[in-house]
Amino acid sequence: MPYKKKIWCPHPSHSRCTRSGSKPTHPEARRPINATQAEIVNRQIRCNSNWSSVILKEGDRVCLRCYEALPNLLDDSFDLEAMDVQFEDEMEKIDSPCLEESILAKEAAKDKLNAVFQLFNIEKIRDHRRFKKIREQIDSVYRHLKHLCDILEENDSDGVHEINPDSIRIDESNELLHGMRELFQQSTYEEQVRLMTIAPDNWGRIAIAQWFGASDHQARQSIILRRDRGVLAFPEYTRGNKFLDEDTIQSVVQFYLQDGVSRVSSNSKDILKIKNELVPVRFMEMSIREALRKFYDDHPTIRVGKSSFYSLKPHHVKISCPHETCMCQTHENMSLLLQAFNNYVKTKILLNAQFTKITASNLIDLIVCTGPVDDCFLGDCEKCNDITPSSVLGRQLDSSDEDDKCSWSLWKLVDKKIDLHQIRGTIISLLNEIDESWPAFLAHSYFNREQRNFINELSIKSSPLSYAVVQIDFAENYTFLRQREVQAAHWNNQQATLFTIHIKIGSEHKNMVIISDYMRHDTAFVFCAQRLIIDYLRKHYPEVKKVNYLSDGAPAHFKNHFNIINLQHHQHDFNIFASWTFSASGHGKGPCDGIGGVVKSNASRSILLFNTVISCAEDFFILLRNLTRMQQSQVKRMNHQSMFAT
């Protein structure tokens, strides 16, 4: 279909309407006019000096609005002579002295501007109604004058700012500045100092204070703030504590959650509900002061006060520990010996303010070299090998104190049974006991630290394309509770085995629990659990090339020759490489303990609140799957006993 050109209404009253775009505002010419109507329109145009001079003739078309505005020629009241008289009156107004003076003033202004433009080789004014172009020419003149002034002042002309870049008038600029002053008056003291930094660079303290109506002290602060931190920077005052940045806060929080700083409780009652999620409680393994010193060693570039460090402790990390079990015998014996020594020194110098408590970590720092190496902990260093704990601790004693009596406790193996024994003797005997236990304790502490660092590095470097870190452990068997249980049923309780698994792949953490009524915690159970773990990894992480198992050194199911043989055939059995890392003796607590505690707590709450009945391991599995939205990965049979993985 050929394009039909539009005919627009020629009346000058539509000069501000648009003819382009999808929705033009200019009306189309639809109604033709005769000679009389054309003469009437031409007289109206000549009477209005603001309209452009347009002459219409017979046959031209106008829009419907302009056509309806024309007088009705068929009406008897229409008088063309009266319109002639009105037109003559309008022309007399145009020829009035006031209008002539206005025209002469405009012409004089035009001549003066043209004379100025001629000096700078700028195009003359041809139409005084083109105000925008005239303003651009005046700005160009200002630039030339500014450049000449800079030459006289020997200023760098390259630094001249753009003149009126936003094309605003002086009255508009003054209105903006007035609003800025009103905003300044309604702002706080700190915001006022911040707003004053937007003042020109060449303004001094007095000029800034006078323009904003502020004090000299505020003006001085704004100048220093702009010099040190830039325009519109937030002022900081040292009267109160500085706010810690988000990275520092996250570093402190993650430090509290590290194994070695705090440990996860395996007790089903040590569970907190935080943001509708069950979180296992963690207990501190050291005091806040010791943790802060360790934090400084691990993060030497971060400084945080003790009160802030304590306030950032997560809610589920507790300082006071309940009854603790499964502790390391080597660490506990050294802790008991140093505790006895501290109690003795405290009673001897009770009034002395210089008393400082000696801990195992403090004693290690006092004995080994400043930059310790492996030989320092293994007793092969020539510099610190001769230093004994008694020589360091004896500095707080006098020669007359050697025969003083004191008592201490030790965990000892007697008749194949471990028990806590109370010993009483002299202070020299206590120091000799510390010296005897020191070499084994120092080496054990070194092994524990190195193994923990290796495990942390192993977890950090894991990725979906390289290897997965799988930490496994047996939780305490769960005894099925029954609400409103009769008295005789106490001796007939059923149990289920819980095998907890924590998988770390890159930044992802996955928790698994294997529930079974196979009650023997042996290597055969671990082998079946490995089969479920490998199936899960193949399904969700098919590109993993290696599995690194982490566990404690329990000889019944992990650290034995049967399990090592299975590890040697891991590639043949599961078609994937594997390695095994054991934690130091007595230091195998980790996330698996918390997983078991959460599972037991979920089940116990459901039983006690909703009278849920659990009679076997499969019922236990179904209950947990419904409560925690777990997924059943596989069901296996082993020796006619069932295993369920969640």
TrEMBL record:
Residues 12-32 are annotated as: Disordered. This is Uncharacterized protein. It comes from Rotaria socialis. The lineage of its organism: Eukaryota, Metazoa, Spiralia, Gnathifera, Rotifera.
